[in-house]
Amino acid sequence: MVAIVNQSKRLGYILAYNERKLKQEVAELIYSANYPKDTEKLSRSDKLMRLVNQAALNERTRVNGLHITLNFDPSDRLNADQFKGIAEDYMNRIGFGRQPYLVYRHFDSAHPHIHIVTTNIQADGKRISLYNLAANQSRLAAWNITREYELTIPATKIKALNEDRPVRPPKMEYGQIGIRIGIADVLEFVMRLYKFSSLEQLNALLKPYNVLAIGGSKESRLYKNRGLIYRVIDNNGKNKGDAVKASDLPIKATLKTLEPLFAANKEVRQKYEPRVRNAVELAFLKNPGLSMNELVQGLKNDQILLVIGKENKGVQPDLIYVDHFSKSVFSGRELGNEYTATGIQERLNQTQTQNQNSELSLAMSVMKYEQKAEDMTQKHRHKH
C-alpha cells in the first residue's frame, strides 16, 4: 500500500472533488467515521458541515484539511469491507481515529485506491500536528499495514502508480459542472500525463477541453505580480463565466508550481524530439507537393496534433507539436528553425513550387509533342 497525504486550506474543495467523482459514477462513499448519521443517510450538506463545524473550532489554524489516498496494486483484490477496515486501521495508526472522516472508493484509475477526507482540528479545538505526518506516522502505518494484510510490496505498487492512466475528463461546458472542480480535473489529467515546458504548450493541451491558462501581457498587473488565472471558453474561444485564480483551485497549478515542472519536463521529454522531427520529414517525403492540411492530417495519423500558438504583436505565432504517443509537447523553435511556422511555410511553398514547375514542364512537353504532331499532320496533307 502506498499512502499519499495532501494538506489543504479548503475542506470544501476536497469534498467537492470526491462528490463530483460520485456524481460521475466513478466513485462511491463506503464509510463515514464519527458522524451522527449512518453513512447511507448522509446528504452532501451533512458531510460538509460536520467537517467545517469542527474545523471552525480553531480559527487560527489555516491548514485544517487533509486529503489522503491509499493506493493498492491491481493484484490486491479488495472489497468494500476490506477497504473500510484498512482505512480505519490506517487512521488509528496516524492518530486520526477519533476525527470525523469520509472514505471514498474510486474507480477512475487502473489501480484500486480510496480517498479519505478529514480535518486535523479536534473536538476540543486543539489541532493535530501535520509536521512530518507523511514521512513519519503515515509511512510507518502504510508499511505495517502492507505486511500485516499481506498486500503487494510497495515497490511494485509504486511502479503500478507510475504506469497508471487516469480517466480522461469531459470537455468543459459552462453551467453544467462546477468551474473550479472541472478546471482542476482537466489540469490534473494533463499535468499528470503530459510533458510540456511553457504556458503556451499547456494551453495546447487545455484548449480541447475548453480551458485556458492566462498569465497576462507584459504590461498587465497580472503578469507583473506573477499571477495566473484560468478561464472556461466555448468552442469558438470566447470566455464563459468568471476567471478563476490558480491559487483558488484544489490543485497546485500556479506559476510557482508550474515553472519547476517546465524545467523538469524539458529534460525528460528530450528523447522524444527525434520522433516528432522524423514524423514531419516522413510526411514531406511521402508527398512532395504537400499542403498544410495534408501535413496536419499526416501528423495526426502519427498521433501528433499540430497547433498554432498564441499570436503576439509583431511576432509570428509558433507551431506547437502535441505528441499523444509519447505524451510530449514541443514548440517548433525547440525542434529547430525548419519546424517553426516560418520554416514549415517555406518548405511547403518550396515543395508546391517544385510541384508546379514539374507540372509546367510536363505541360510544355505535351504542348511541344502536340505541336510536333500537328506539324507532321499538316505536312502530310500538303503532300496529298
Please, could you describe this protein's structure?
By secondary structure, the chain is α+β, with helices and mostly antiparallel strands. It folds into 3 domains: 2-163, BirA Bifunctional Protein, domain 2 (2-Layer Sandwich), CATH 3.30.930.30; 179-266, no CATH class; 269-384, no CATH class. The chain contains 13 helices and 11 strands. The strands form 3 sheets. It has a 5-stranded antiparallel β-sheet, with helices on both faces. A hairpin with a 5-residue loop joins β7 and β8 (239-245). α1 (11-23) packs antiparallel against α2 and α3 (80-93) packs across α4 (134-148). The longest helix has 43 residues, at 341-383. The chain is elongated. Mean pLDDT is 85; it is low at 155-164 and 356-366.
Quick description:
By secondary structure, this protein is of the alpha+beta class. It has helices at residues 11-23, 44-55, 80-93, 134-148, 154-163, 179-193, 199-206, 221-224, 255-268, 273-286, 292-301, 332-335, 341-383, and strands at 2-8, 27-33, 65-71, 101-106, 113-119, 211-214, 229-233, 239-245, 304-308, 319-323, 328-331.
List the main descriptive attributes of the protein structure presented here:
single chain; 384 residues; alpha+beta; BirA Bifunctional Protein, domain 2; 3 domains; five-stranded antiparallel sheet; three-stranded antiparallel sheet; 13 helices; 11 strands; elongated
Largest beta sheet: what is the strand line-up? 1-3-5-4-2
Number of domains: 3
Stretches where pLDDT is under 50 for at least 5 consecutive residues are 155-164, 356-366
Structural class: alpha+beta
Q: What's the overall geometry?
A: elongated
Order of helices and strands: EHEHEHEEHHHHEHEEHHHEEEHH
Strand content: 15-25%
- The name CATH uses for the topology of the largest domain is BirA Bifunctional Protein, domain 2
Which CATH C-level class of the largest domain is it? Alpha Beta
Radius of gyration (Å): 29 Å
Architecture per CATH nomenclature, i.e. the level-2 architecture of the largest domain: 2-Layer Sandwich
Helical fraction: 40-55%
First and last CA, distance: 102 Å
Mean pLDDT: 85
